[in-house]
Each structure stands twice: as structure tokens, then as C-alpha cells.
């Protein structure tokens, strides 16, 4: 045992040394492609490298139009064709430097904090994580409990899927504006929230967790919903508007020892991030991937193995991969009408607004809450209690009560997009030849014919 432990430690330290000697190298090419900017990242390989890079690009609000990924060995190389949020090539000269700093050791702690909550220090707020059975009015009850016990919500994100709810909420003490550290007070808050979450119908169980500090909110929400098994069917769930179902196939590539996963669905921002998060949470390693998202439909192809080096080996495991990726896509797919609330922040604002939603029969399917200075910037996606579209007169009644200039209606940018057939791209050529085409995709050659 001692020899094994010693060997493991030496091997682990050697890998760390290799990573320190070979930090990620980032290059930005704005000339090779007329419509997109090429971002190339290469470094010594380690578990989670792909997710880390995709997370950084997502946090910078870059839209990934195409991506070519290869990490079969001790080195990885990722090439991303990106635009800004408006579909334009990047104009900033310091993009490479910003990405490189974010991927380095100093950038990791700050990266999660900046994207998680609109406050300046992770030590200034308390994080509450909640999972449980979704139901109409749940969010209103959660915010009411927090407001009643003198807590101010400075940021929050709420996802719902398949009758389950997950939320990360950042709170401060109403009086001091700082993180809440009193263990008795935190225990009381946790107990009350757990009581609200459990209700009388949560057969699967609810969970709460409280900590001082920050996390990458979206990354954590994926982990929470996966742990809560939101990918399992729940026969007790309410009838809801059916989203277009993603098409996921899982096939064997026996001659190379891989499992090939194909995902096709309507494109939207952060789709790649969501898929890579889920594969990582399921303990799979992506060795090669091709991502195409240049139209209304996205195509993603992954060559994966389990962490132990084995491909998917059973029908049950294959079905689980399919269901989990479907869930990853649908968690963030917004259902309902988008309501944007922008105005002066105040204590109890969220409690009042969500109470008005509940009193008018609205159910929140997703929410993003942020405070910038003295301004509240909140987004809610709402349906009626059965998950159906809300009547116009109901929305107008809610706006009249909250304030017509404060609460605005905006149709979701992706809810009405129609999927179209796009060309299917395959990584098969990588293995048939050591692939001039793939080298071109990676941006290492000027032309391919």
C-alpha cells in the first residue's frame, strides 16, 4: 500500500509540474475566416480541460459557431469559431490575454465569483442551494421566508425541469449588507426552506445547503439537477408545454474503443457548455468532438470514454446518456413568456413581485436575479399553473400592479425558431487519415481540398 501511495503521489505531482511548465496557450485569429474569430487553445491535458475552456468562453458571452476538439493523449487542442452576441467578429485586442488569464491559476477563483453574482466579494454574501419538487408559487414562498427573516436577495438563478426545481440564491443580512455567518440563524433559515420545499407531495425528497462564498452558478445548477435525477420521468408532474425534443444517439466505435454521441437540437446560447457539463458530471472524457451551430439547428458529435478508459458498455448506460443529455438541453430551454423587471432595488422586492405572480396564477419556470449597485435586473419566464401560455389580460394585470415601466414583456428569442435540417458532420475522417481535413479544421493548414 505504501509503494502504491508513493507512486500515486509522485505521478500526481509530475502531472502538476507538467501543467505548470505548459500553461494553456491561447491565440486569436481574426483573418482566416470572414464571419468568425478563431480562438485556439492548447495545453498539457488534464481532466476537465474542455469544460474549463468552454466555461471561460461562455462567461465572456462569446457565441460558439463551430468547434473542433482533440485531446487523445497528453495534450489537448481546441479550436473555436466565435462571434460576439450580435453575430460579429471580435474587435477587442485583449481577448487572448483575458482568456489566458482566466484559464490560469489566478483566474479560477475570480472567474466563478464574477459570473455568479453581482457583488464585489464572495465573502460579502451567503450562498443557499435548493432542490425539490416544483409547484406553482414555490418561488414566492422561498423569497417570502427569506424576506421575513431579514435577508436580502442580491442574486439568484432558478431552473425547473421535469417537475424538479434547482436554485442558487445569494443573500446578505438586511441590516449590515454582509454575509450571514451566525450558525443558529443559518440553521433556522435552512430548516424553514426545507419545510417549504418538501410540501406534502415531494416523494423524492428536497435538499438545502448553506455556505459562505461563491460558486459558478450555472455549473452548480447542472450538478444539482443531475444529482436530483431530473432526467428521470416523474408521473406526478404537471402537464406542461412540450419542448422540441433533442435528438440524441449513442453508438459504438468499436475499432477505436470510443462511444460516439450525437446531439442535434435547436441552437441557443450556452448549448455546448450545458452538454459538456453533463458529460463531465457523468464521468466521461471527451477525446474528440465536432460542433456546428451556424443555423437554427446545432449538431454536436463527441467521441467519449468513461474515466476508466472504457466505452459505454450496456443498453442501460446508453439510455442514461441519452436521457441525461436531453435533460441538459431542456433545463435551460425557457418555457413561457419572458418578463424583465428593471428598477430601483429594495428590501423585499422579490417577495412582493413573486407574490403578485402567484396571486395572478402565474408559475415561474426559470428566473435570473441580479443586483447592480442600486438597480435590480431580474428576468422571469412565466406560464399559467398548468404550464400553458399566459393570457394577455393576465400579463397586463400583473404589469399594472407592479408597474408598466418596471415590468416589461419580451418574447424569448429562441422560442419561435423552427428547426431546419443541417448537414451532419462526422469525426470519422480523423481516423481514416491523420487528417489533413482535421488539421484544416484546427486552423493548422491554410486550405483543404
TrEMBL record:
Cited SUPFAM superfamilies: ACT-like
PROSITE patterns: ACT
Record domain ACT: where: 38-118, 127-204, 338-412
An individual GO BP term: regulation of primary metabolic process
Keyword presence, Repeat: yes
Matching Gene3D superfamilies: 3.30.70.260
InterPro entries: ACR1-12 (IPR040217), ACT-like_dom_sf (IPR045865), ACT_dom (IPR002912)
Ranges that cross the membrane: none
Gene Ontology annotations for the cellular component aspect, listed alphabetically: nucleus
Keywords for this protein: Repeat
Domain of life of the organism encoding this protein: Eukaryota
Gene Ontology MF annotations: amino acid binding
Annotated function: Binds amino acids.
Name recorded for this polypeptide: ACT domain-containing protein ACR
Organism of origin: Nicotiana tabacum
Gene that specifies this protein: LOC107779075
Amino acid at each position: 500500500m505504501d509503494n502504491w501511495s508513493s507512486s500515486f503521489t509522485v505521478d500526481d505531482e509530475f502531472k502538476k509540474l507538467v501543467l505548470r511548465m505548459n500553461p494553456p496557450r491561447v491565440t486569436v485569429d481574426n483573418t482566416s475566416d470572414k464571419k468568425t474569430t478563431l480562438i485556439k487553445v492548447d495545453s498539457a491535458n488534464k481532466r476537465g480541460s474542455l469544460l474549463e475552456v468552454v466555461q471561460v468562453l461562455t462567461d465572456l458571452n462569446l457565441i460558439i459557431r463551430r468547434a473542433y476538439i482533440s485531446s487523445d493523449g497528453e495534450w489537448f487542442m481546441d479550436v473555436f469559431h466565435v462571434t460576439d452576441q450580435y453575430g460579429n467578429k471580435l474587435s477587442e485586442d485583449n481577448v487572448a490575454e483575458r482568456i489566458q488569464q482566466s484559464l490560469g491559476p489566478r483566474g479560477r477563483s475570480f472567474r466563478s465569483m464574477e459570473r455568479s453574482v453581482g457583488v464585489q466579494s464572495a465573502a460579502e454574501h451567503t450562498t443557499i442551494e435548493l432542490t425539490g419538487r416544483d409547484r406553482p408559487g414555490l418561488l414566492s414562498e422561498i423569497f417570502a421566508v427569506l424576506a421575513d427573516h431579514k435577508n436580502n436577495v442580491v442574486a439568484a438563478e432558478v431552473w425547473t425541469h421535469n417537475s424538479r426545481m434547482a436554485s442558487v440564491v445569494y443573500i446578505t443580512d438586511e441590516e449590515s449588507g454582509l454575509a450571514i455567518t451566525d450558525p443558529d440563524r443559518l440553521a433556522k433559515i435552512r430548516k424553514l426552506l426545507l419545510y417549504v420545499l418538501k410540501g406534502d407531495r415531494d416523494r423524492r425528497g428536497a435538499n438545502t445547503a448553506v455556505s459562505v462564498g461563491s460558486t459558478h452558478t450555472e455549473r452548480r445548477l447542472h450538478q444539482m439537477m443531475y444529482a436530483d435525477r431530473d432526467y428521470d420521468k416523474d408521473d406526478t408532474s404537471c402537464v406542461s408545454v412540450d419542448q422540441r425534443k433533442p435528438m440524441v444517439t449513442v453508438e459504438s466505435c468499436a475499432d477505436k474503443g470510443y462511444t460516439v454521441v450525437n446531439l442535434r437540437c435547436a441552437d441557443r446560447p450556452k448549448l455546448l457548455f450545458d452538454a459538456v457539463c453533463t458529460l463531465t458530471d457523468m464521468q466521461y472524457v471527451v477525446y474528440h468532438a465536432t460542433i456546428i451551430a451556424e443555423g437554427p439547428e446545432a449538431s454536436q458529435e463527441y467521441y467519449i470514454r468513461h474515466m476508466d478508459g472504457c466505452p459505454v458498455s450496456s443498453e442501460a448506460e446508453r439510455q442514461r446518456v441519452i436521457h441525461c443529455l436531453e435533460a441538459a438541453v431542456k433545463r435551460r430551454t425557457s418555457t413561457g413568456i419572458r418578463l424583465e423587471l428593471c428598477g430601483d432595488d429594495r428590501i423585499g422586492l422579490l417577495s412582493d413581485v413573486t407574490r403578485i405572480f402567484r396571486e395572478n396564477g402565474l408559475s415561474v419556470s426559470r428566473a435570473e436575479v441580479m443586483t447592480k449597485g442600486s438597480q435590480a435586473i431580474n428576468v422571469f419566464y412565466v406560464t399559467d399553473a398548468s404550464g400553458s401560455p399566459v393570457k394577455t389580460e393576465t400579463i397586463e394585470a400583473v404589469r399594472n400592479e407592479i408597474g408598466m415601466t418596471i415590468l416589461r414583456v419580451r418574447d424569448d428569442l429562441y422560442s419561435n425558431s423552427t428547426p431546419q435540417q443541417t448537414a451532419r458532420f462526422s469525426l470519422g475522417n480523423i481516423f481514416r487519415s491523420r487528417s489533413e481535413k482535421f488539421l484544416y479544421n484546427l486552423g493548422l493548414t491554410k486550405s483543404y481540398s
